[in-house]
Amino acid sequence: MKTIRVAAAVICDDMDNPSRIFATAKGYGEFKGQWEFPGGKIEAGEAAEEALVREIREELDTEIEVGALIHTIEYDYPAFHLSMDCFLAKVTAGSLTLKEAQAARWLTGSELYEVPWLPADISLIRILEKRMAGDVCQSRQKEILKNGEKDLTPTLRNSLPYPYTGKRNRKTFRAERQVHGNDDSKGSKRPDGSEYTHSAILR
């Protein structure tokens, strides 16, 4: 079976702590309308990073900085084997103009499954889902500890592991972490084995 080597760019808002990624829907061919990460074929004698810069310039009229390799996808389509190197990337110039794609979206971690991905991309989506979920968790914790729930953005409110009330502060956030078993410093049970209540933890 013929192997095709390609490179794909996971363009994001922040390569250190991505909270949004850019995806496009194919505008032509057998898989038209299905979603993917922009990029293209690696030419003979070309490094994957070089191919990616060239393809994004051609497809989106945009310059990018290529970051770390996230994952290499190996996937068998009926007519060929796909080997796709997937890199984090960020925009350095241009406005992501769609020259070939049918549509595009910036997706948060909670929105990753709102579009129909190409079959080969699913394994990468699972990796990104875990990575972006971790970043949301860290952002949520920092924001709650600083401001309490009342100042949370809607995205962070929806990611809370308990119902949003608008009243919890840093003490109650710690209490919730203990009740849910997420506090490394203290368990969620008393020495006698009974569970703490919120009021007991706060005393």
What does this entry look like structurally?
It is a single chain. With 203 residues, the protein is α+β, with helices and mostly antiparallel strands. It contains five helices and seven strands, in the order ββββαβββαααα. It is 29% helix and 26% strand. Strand 5 and strand 6 form a beta hairpin. The radius of gyration is 22 Å and the shape is globular. The chain starts with a strand and ends with a helix. 22% of the residues are buried.
Sequence-ordered SSE layout with sheet pairings:
Blueprint: E1 3-11, E2 20-25, E3 35-36, E4 39-41, H1 48-60, E5 63-76, E6 81-93, E7 103-108, H2 122-147, H3 154-158, H4 170-179, H5 198-202
Parallel strand pairs: 1-6
Antiparallel strand pairs: 1-4, 2-3, 2-7, 5-6
Q: What brief labels describe this structure?
A:
203 residues, alpha+beta, 4-stranded mixed sheet, 5 helices, 7 strands, globular, disordered C terminus
